[in-house]
Each structure stands twice: as C-alpha cells, then as structure tokens.
Amino acid sequence: MASGGLQARSVGANSPAAAEAAIDRTYLARFTMGNDALEQEILELFAAQAPHYLHRLRTAATDADWQEAVHTIKGSAAAVGARQLQRRAELAERIETRLAPADREAQRDRALRSIAEATAAACRQIGQMFGH
Q: What is the mean pLDDT of residues 87-109?
C-alpha cells in the first residue's frame, strides 16, 4: 500500500468492523496518492462533518430533504472509502416515497439507525488511526 505512515489499530474479532473495515484504506491511499497528511485531513474533515450529516438526515422534513441528506452522506462516504456507510446510504436512497406514510417512516427509521451505526464505526476507525 502506498500510504505507509498511517497504521490502523487492530479491531476486535467480535466487532462488526472485523469482517470489513469501516474505511477502505487501500482505496483512500490511491485517492490521496499516498499522501498521509492529505489522508488524515480528509478523514478528520469527514469525522467532523458526520454529526452534521446525521442531523440533516434526522431532521429531514420532506422527501426532498431526506433524499438530499442521504445523497450527501453517500457521496461523502464514497470519497473517504467508507464502503459500509456508502452501501447503507444507497439503500436509504431507494426507500419508496409512494409507500404509506407509516411504512415509509418505519423504513426511514431503520435506515437512519443503520446509517448512524456505520457512521459511528467509520468515526471510531478514524479516531483509532490518529489516536483520538
């Protein structure tokens, strides 16, 4: 891997991140062309913005607000190599707006919990990478 300076700490065998790291470090190293300082800056910016992204999703008042918030999360996750989060956001984008309101809200609640869980895993990994 091109990024030699940044080392992720080990993850517990029973954690969800053990099967697949929350951040795809190989992708990120390619994206940053092996620039460790840029990698750290991008990941720390993502971690700082993540609570704002989740807040926008939690407070989405309209279908358009939901779509915009989840699309932002998907794009940000893709940019940093947060593949689990990206996939969960992609699924959340597909929630049908034609469902009955109660069904749509139930699906969105499940999607929000899933996205929040993947976001937390990504932020934990970022914190471990940089000793935060």
A: 95
| CB proximity list for 108: less than 8 A, separation 6 or greater | 66, 92, 95
Which two structure tokens, joined as six digits, stand for 5? 């300076």
The alpha carbon of residue 73 and the mean position of all alpha carbons in its chain are separated, in whole angstroms, by: 7
Helix (H, G, I), strand (E, B) or coil at 4: coil
End-to-end CA distance of the chain: 23
Q: Which amino acid is at 35?
A: N
Q: pTM for this structure?
A: 0.82
Token pair, residue 31, equals 């994206």
Q: Are 2 and 26 in contact (CB under 8 A)?
A: no
pLDDT in tens, 1-42: 333 333 333 333 344 444 579 999 999 999 999 999 999 999
Which class for 64: exposed (0-12), middle (13-18), buried (19 or more C-beta within 10 A)?
A: exposed
Domains, in order of start, for the chain: 22-129 (1.20.120.160)
Q: Is 114 exposed, middle or buried (0-12, 13-18, 19+ CB in 10 A)?
A: middle
Cα–chain center distance at 42: 13
